[in-house]
Every structure is written in structure tokens, then in C-alpha cells.
Amino acid sequence: MLKEFRVYRQFVKINLLSGMEYKGWWLMIFQVLLTTFGDPLAVVLIFSRFGSIGDWDMERIMLMYAMAFTAYGLGETLFRGFSYFPFRMIRSGDFDRVLLRPKSLFVQVSASYFHIHRAARPFMGLCIIVWSLNRMGVQFTFLNVTMLIFAIIGGFLTYAGVFVLSSGVAFFTINALDWIHVLTSASREVVRVPTPYLPRALRYVFTFFMPMLVIIYFPASAIGDWGGAFWRGWLALPAGGVFFCMGLLVWRVGVRHYKSTGS
């Protein structure tokens, strides 16, 4: 495990240094910050115009969205290689070269692409989380902070699992991966809607298949004292771990059935 971490760190270092060779690399960070600022700004404008929806005010929606946004940003930053895998390795045949190296396939693929500007997403998400909790008057107790960290890690594992899952499916479909946006973009949009107002079908999908409501709503409800059992907030981390293991299983099945590009 330690050796694999060193390999991952070396890959990240190489990608980081190569990216910083461009003189305007810091402008990309600024660009991502501006882009990510647009979504929460839209929520603020909507609630300032129409007010709360029942018991759901702007701070609740912002907290849930920021938690999902932070988790997605971490997954996109640290597992960017799996996001590019179907297009940059399978279709091009570069995965054949990866198979020849006596190192972990998982580590090589996950660290094959690393863009420092992607780290702007989790940074912005954490800032919004702190702002929302302060506005709600939530105390930063040991239990609340620990649950929040576990929820973000669970969300990170879930989105990492999505990228790994899509890469495993790509061994069989090669190109038809547009459906994966339902598990990335759509899952972030779902948490912007007050959970009690979601259609039942969506609540089931994002609770039992991709457990975003378990990872985001349960901890946020427990931390903000919105009602419901406090212990449900601790389900975020194991739920994310289970989903990640499911994605890893699909990845391993795909690797086992890989037949090379033939070139």
C-alpha cells in the first residue's frame, strides 16, 4: 500500500510540474473559481426573490449542495485519470502500455491525469459549507465536525466509484457513456431540491442505487438538527465505501475481459 501511494504521488508530481510549465496555469484556477461561483449565486438569487420553501431556506440548500460539490471536486481532482480513461486509454490503445508496467493498474490510471485547477472546486465547496453552518447557527462540535468529514469522504468515495464504474463499463461499450452524467451532474442537482419535494422514484434511485441522499441529506439533517435520527448521519461513510467497492468490482471484471486493441 505504501509503495502504491508513492507511485501515485510521483505521477501527481509529474503532472503537476508539467501543468505549471504553462505561464498562465494560475488563470485556470481563477477561471474554475469564477465558474463554480455561478451555481451557488443562482441559488442565492432564487431564494432572495421567492423566499423559503416550507422549512427549507437558502442555507439548507446551500449546505447540501456544497457538501456534494466538495465531494465531487475531490473525486474529480484525485481520480481524474478514470474520468479520461475511456477516451484517452481504451480508444487510443494506451492501456496496453499500462499493462506492461509492473505497477498497480488502479494507481497508474487514477494518477495518469492531475490538474491543479480542479482543486478549486472542493476549496469553494468548503467555504460555502462553513458559511452555511455559520448562518444556521450550528456549533462546530467534535461530533458535528467528525460527521461532516465522514460525509465528505463518503461522497468522495461515491464519485470516485462513479468514475471507476464508468471505466469498467467502457471495456465493453467503448464509447456509449453519456448515461454516466446521470450519476455525476444530475446527482449534484438533486441535492439542490428540498428532499421531501423530490418525486418518490428519484428518492429511491438516489438512496438505494447511488446513495447521494444517504451521504448528503442524512448528515446535513443530523448536523443541522432538522429532525430524524442522529445516527443516520453516520451511514454516509459506509454507504460511500460500498458504492466504491461496487465500482471497483466492475473495473476488475472489465480488466479481466480486456482483449487489447489489436494494434
Structure report:
The chain has one domain (2-256). It is globular, with a radius of gyration of 19 Å. The chain has 263 residues and is mainly α. It has helices at residues 2-19, 25-50, 58-78, 80-90, 95-100, 105-110, 120-136, 142-173, 181-190, 200-209, 212-224, 236-256. The model has no long low-confidence stretch (mean pLDDT 83).
Please outline the major beta sheet. none
Give the mean pLDDT.
Answer: 83
The figure for the number of domains is 1
Helical fraction equals over 70%
Put simply, the count of helices is 12
Distance between the termini: 33 Å
- Determine the structural class based on helices, strands and strand pairing: mainly alpha
How many distinct beta strands?
0
Q: Quick one: overall form?
A: globular
Instruction: Report the oligomer.
Output: single chain
Q: Element order, helices and strands?
A: HHHHHHHHHHHH
Rg of Cα set:
19 Å
Q: Report strand %.
A: under 5%
* Poorly predicted residue ranges: none
Characteristics:
single chain; 263 residues; mainly alpha; globular
